[in-house]
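Progress report, Aim 2. The chain analyzed during this reporting quarter is listed below.
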Amino acid sequence: MAFKQDKPEDCPICCESMDSQKEALECGHWVHTECIVKSAKAQCPICRKSLILSKTDMAEIKRLHLKYGMFERTEEEQSELVERHRELVELMSVERRRELVELMSRMSQIRERKILRIAPSQGNLDVVRWLIDQRRSE
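Predicted structure tokens for the chain:
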């Protein structure tokens, strides 16, 4: 270990006293082992260096992964997840575009029919507010 941080008074993660921590991590940083375990990662939260933890601590990390569904994904699984996310975003944006087109169409109809008396200087915001109120009352 080339680097060794001086022992701070408080843990940088939980801000509690470092009195219970007897030694620095392998990377030289001082963090409570419990804080590392609660993060569900066997790495230093400061420099991200992988750490060798006790079997008990590793078992707790594994339990947290199972409890909260924090599984390591393969590159293939990750790219599939990203692709699904992109498709979802595209669907949402298509739906959002439809809503905007519908809203703009209704705004034009409202102005043409003079259903809502709004001076041109008031702009579209008043029309949008009126449409929202109409939707709520439906």
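The chain has two domains: 1-72, 74-118. The chain has four helices and no strands. These observations will guide the mutagenesis work planned for the next reporting period.
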